[in-house]
Design brief:
Length: 656
C-alpha cells in the first residue's frame, strides 16, 4: 500500500506526512468516526512480515496503553487493514494523539533556550519520565526530536518505539550486540544491532548502552541530562563525524562544560550528576532531578533540623544564614550548601526571573537589597530603551512588581520594618512605599554611595562619589543632613554604611584610594561613645550579621569573621565562603545582601561581570569571539572599524 493524501486505513484518511523513523512512518490523518485529527504511525509492509519487528510494534502499543499522563502523547488504538497485496499481509498503524507544535530539536536549531524556559520544560520531562519509570517503562530513546511542545507550552514525550518494561539488570550485564547496521549512519539515527536489539540514538546513549550492556532507568536519566545540555548550550554534549566517533565520545570524553558557564550552579550540578559515566555514581532516580528543579523553579519554605555548631570557627563553620540560601538574579538560582549548623534554618527557594522585559542593572552600585525579615527583595533593573528602575518581589510570590517613579534608581535599601525602600536618584535621596506609592524626597545626595536606615528612624548615607566626603545623617522624614564623623587622617571617603540594630554603631568602608578598594578598611563608629576602630584591614563592603559575624569583600570573594556584638569587635580569623561575587571594584560595592532571618542574596561574578568581547558585523552577523572572558566596559570602535578600545578591570585596577 503506497501512502499518500486520501489513502484510507479503516476509518482514518491520510492527510499529510509528519515524518519517518526506524519503526515506521507517521502521518496526519482524520478520524471520520469521531471527527478529529490523529497521528497514525504506520508499520511498513516490509516490516510487517518480520515477526521481530511486528512484536516490537505490538509492544509499543501495549506500553503506551499502560501510560496515561498529560506529558506523554496518548494512544487511541491499534488499527489493522488489508494492504492490498497478494500475500495477505495487513497494514498495522498505531492511532496516536496528534500533537501540534515543534519538537525541541527544531526549537534548539534556532539557538539555545533561556534558563527559565529550560527549567519549565525540564520539570515536565521529569514528570513524564517519573510516571513511566514508576510503571516499569524505560523510554530508551529520550532526545529533543522526541519531545514536542504545544502552542500553550505543554511538553509531550513521543515515540516509545524503543521502550521496554524494565528488567532486573545491572549496567554490567551482557547484551548480545555485534555490529551496527546502516540505520546508524547518522549520529541522530537509532543504533540497531544486527540481532535486532534497539538501543537508542548514539548522541544520547549512556556509556552502558554504548558498551552494549544492560540498562535501567539511569539510561533515561543520562539522555535527560544530554537533552538539558543541548537546550541550554545549543550543542549536543557528545559530537562526532560518525556514529563511531560519537560513541567514543560518550564512553571516554567529557562535555564542553564551559558552554554552560551562564547556567546557575545548581542546574549545572544537576546536569553533571545526570552525565556521570559510571552508572553507579549517576543520579539514580528522575524524581531527585525533579526535586532539584523545584528548588530552581518555585518559591517554597522548608525547615531543616541541622546539627550543632563546631567550636572551632573555620571553613566548615560558614556563616549560618548565608548558607541558608542564595540566588543569582542574572542566572536563575545558585545554592550555597551548608554544613551542619544550628539552629534550624528557614530555607527559601527563589527563582531569579526579573520579568517585565527587564534585566538586572549591576553598573551603578548594589542592585539588590533584602528586608530585615527576608520577606521582600528589591532590585534595580532596566528594560530595553528604558531607564533603570526599582522592582520589589515578595519572596513567597513568583512575580516582582515595578515601583513607579523610580527612574534612575540606584543602591536601594529597606526601612527596618520593610515597609519603605530608600534609594538614590537624580541627585536626591528618596524613599517609596515597598508596596508602591508616592515617592518622597528625603534630602540632596548628588551621587550616593550607600545608605542604611536605623532603628532610630534616621538614615546614615554617603552623599557623593567624589573624595573628601564623610557619612551624613538625616531623619527618614526629611530634613538637612549633618556629618556623622570627620574623615580620619589619610581617609578619602566613607562609603556603604550599615547601621547596627538598636542604632548602637555604624560599620562602613573607609577608603584611602578611590581607585583601589583592596587597600580599604572596614571601620566601626560607636554612636554612644563616638569611638572609632578598624575591624578589618584590606577589605570593603562590610556587613555585621545577627549570627555574630562580619562579612566583607576581598579580591572578589566574600569573607566572614566571627564578631562580638557586645564588644563590637572581630574575634576570629576571616575565611572565604563565596569565591566569586559580583563587585564594582571602582566603587567599593558588591552585589550581596543579607537579612536577619538567614536569607542571603548575591550575584556571582560570572553572572554579569566577565564576558568575551563579541563583534557584530552589519552584513556578516555575529563573528567568532576575539577574546577570553574579561571584566570589560566602555567600548569605543576605531574610525576604520578595525580595533576597539575598552576599559578592563582585573580585580584591583582598571586599565585602558
Amino acid at each position: 500500500m503506497k501512502m499518500r493524501a486520501g489513502t484510507r486505513i479503516g476509518p482514518y484518511e491520510i492527510v499529510a506526512s509528519l515524518g519517518a523513523g526506524g519503526m515506521g512512518e507517521v502521518w496526519r490523518a482524520h478520524d471520520s468516526r469521531l471527527k478529529r485529527d490523529v497521528a497514525l504511525k504506520v508499520l511498513p509492509v516490509a516490516f510487517a512480515a518480520d515477526p521481530d519487528r511486528l512484536a516490537r510494534f505490538q509492544r509499543e502499543a501495549e506500553v503506551l496503553a499502560t501510560l496515561n499522563h498529560p506529558n506523554i502523547a496518548a494512544i487511541y488504538g491499534l488499527e489493522v487493514a488489508p494492504a492490498g497485496v497478494d500475500d495477505g499481509t495487513d497494514v498495522r498503524a498505531l492511532v496516536l494523539e496528534l500533537v501540534d507544535g515543534e519538537t525541541l530539536a527544531e526549537r534548539v536549531a534556532r539557538g539555545p533556550l533561556s534558563v527559565a524556559d529550560t527549567l519549565d520544560l525540564a520539570r515536565q520531562m521529569c514528570d513524564a519520565l517519573d510516571y513511566a519509570h514508576e510503571r516499569g517503562v524505560l523510554h530508551r530513546d529520550f532526545k529533543p526530536s522526541n519531545l514536542k511542545v504545544t502552542g500553550n507550552g505543554q511538553l509531550k514525550v513521543l515515540d516509545f518505539g524503543l521502550a521496554k518494561l524494565a528488567e532486573r539488570v545491572t549496567p554490567d550485564a551482557a547484551v548480545d550486540h555485534t555490529t551496527i547496521s546502516p540505520a546508524a549512519a547518522q549520529a541522530r539515527s537509532p543504533v540497531i544491532s544486527d540481532t535486532g536489539m534497539l538501543l537508542g540514538t548514539a548522541a544520547y546513549m549512556s556509556p552502558e548502552q554504548a558498551r552494549a550492556r544492560g540498562v535501567d532507568r539511569r539510561a533515561d536519566i543520562w539522555a535527560f541530562g544530554c537533552t538539558l545540555f543541548e537546550l541550554l548550550s545549543g550543542h549536543r554534549p557528545f559530537e562526532g563525524e560518525s556514529v563511531t566517533d560519537v560513541l567514543a565520545a560518550v564512553v571516554s570524553q567529557e562535555p564542553r562544560w564551559d558552554r554552560l558557564q551562564h547556567v546557575p550552579p545548581l542546574l549545572r550540578d544537576l546536569i553533571r550528576r545526570c552525565l556521570t559515566k559510571d552508572a553507579k555514581a549517576r543520579l539514580r532516580d528522575i524524581g531527585d532531578a525533579r526535586h532539584d528543579l523545584d528548588r530552581c523553579l518555585a518559591p517554597a519554605e522548608t525547615s531543616s533540623s541541622i546539627g550543632p555548631v563546631t567550636q572551632r570557627f573555620g571553613r566548615r563553620q560558614v556563616l549560618p544564614w548565608l548558607a541558608a540560601v542564595t540566588f543569582a538574579l542574572m542566572a536563575a538560582v545558585a545554592l550555597v550548601r551548608a554544613p551542619s549548623i544550628a539552629p534550624p534554618l528557614r530555607l527559601v527557594q527563589v527563582t531569579g526571573a526579573v520579568g517585565h522585559g527587564a534585566a538586572l542593572d549591576l553598573n551603578q552600585g548594589p542592585a539588590i537589597a533584602l528586608s530585615r525579615d527576608g520577606a521582600r527583595l528589591v532590585f534595580v533593573a532596566r528594560a530595553a530603551g528604558q531607564p533603570r528602575q526599582l522592582f520589589v518581589r515578595i519572596l513567597e510570590q513568583l512575580n516582582p512588581i515595578a515601583l513607579p517613579d523610580t527612574a534612575n534608581a540606584m543602591a536601594p535599601f529597606f526601612s527596618p520594618d520593610g515597609q519603605w525602600v530608600a534609594f538614590f536618584s537624580d541627585g536626591k535621596l528618596k524613599k517609596v512605599p515597598a508596596a508602591g506609592g508616592a515617592v518622597v524626597v528625603v534630602c540632596d545626595a548628588p551621587n550616593g554611595r550607600g545608605g542604611s536606615w536605623g532603628d532610630d528612624d534616621a538614615i546614615v548615607f554617603s552623599p557623593n562619589s567624589a573624595g573628601g566626603i564623610q557619612l551624613q545623617r538625616v531623619p527618614a522624614t526629611g530634613g538637612s543632613p549633618t556629618p556623622v564623623t570627620p574623615l580620619a587622617e589619610g581617609e578619602s571617603a566613607q562609603r556603604w554604611p550599615q547601621v547596627l540594630p538598636g542604632a548602637r554603631a555604624i560599620v562602613f568602608t573607609s577608603a584611602t584610594n578611590l581607585g583601589n578598594y583592596e587597600v580599604a578598611d572596614i571601620a566601626l563608629l560607636s554612636l554612644a561613645t563616638g569611638e572609632r576602630k578598624t575591624l578589618v584591614r584590606g577589605g570593603y563592603f562590610g556587613r555585621v550579621t545577627p549570627s555574630g559575624h562580619l562579612t566583607f569583600i576581598r579580591q572578589g570573594r566574600l569573607f566572614v569573621a566571627a564578631f562580638d556584638a557586645e564588644a563590637l569587635q572581630v574575634t576570629g580569623e576571616p575565611v572565604p565562603v563565596l569565591e566569586s561575587v559580583s563587585v564594582l571594584g571602582n566603587t567599593g560595592a558588591a552585589q550581596v545582601a543579607m537579612a536577619d532571618n538567614g536569607t542571603a542574596v548575591y550575584v556571582p561574578a560570572s553572572a554579569g561581570d566577565a564576558a568575551p568581547l563579541q563583534w557584530l558585523h552589519r552584513t556578516a552577523g555575529l563573528l567568532p569571539e576575539r577574546s577570553t572572558a574579561l571584566d570589560w566596559s566602555s567600548p569605543r570602535i576605531s574610525p576604520d572599524g578595525s580595533r576597539v578600545a575598552v576599559d578592563i578591570f582585573d580585580g584591583r585596577q582598571t586599565d585602558l
